[in-house]
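FW: tagging you since you asked about this chain on Friday. Here's the raw sequence from the shared folder, copied in full. Didn't touch anything.
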Amino acid sequence: QVQLVESGGGLVQAGGSLRLSCTASGVIFSINTMGWYRQAPGKQRELVADITTGGNTNYADSVKVRFTISRDNAKNTVYLQMNNLKPEDTAVYYCNAARSGFPRYTSWGQGTQVTVSS
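HL: got it, structure written out here
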């Protein structure tokens, strides 16, 4: 079973930057897509950004230009560079790894808190 370990969350002032990292272990069948989701209090979990093995990226409109997702396939690691952070970015950020082919799976990290103060 794929396990994901996140790091890099914390407290930052508005306009500041943070970089999240997530490394997958126990990978037997290669991961197709890795991504970041977030969940703020009282809200549903939402996609922030994801990236395929080939480097195709997808971003939520609210983070385009400010956030950049990248991936090191050899290390099964995904990064999220977050710039110009806003208070509305405050949430628990979860790493996700998914495989669409057989055997299909999706795994989640434990989450890392990002708090942006105004």
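FW: The two ends are 40 Å apart (CA to CA).
HL: agreed, and The longest strand covers residues 91-99.
FW: great, closing this out.
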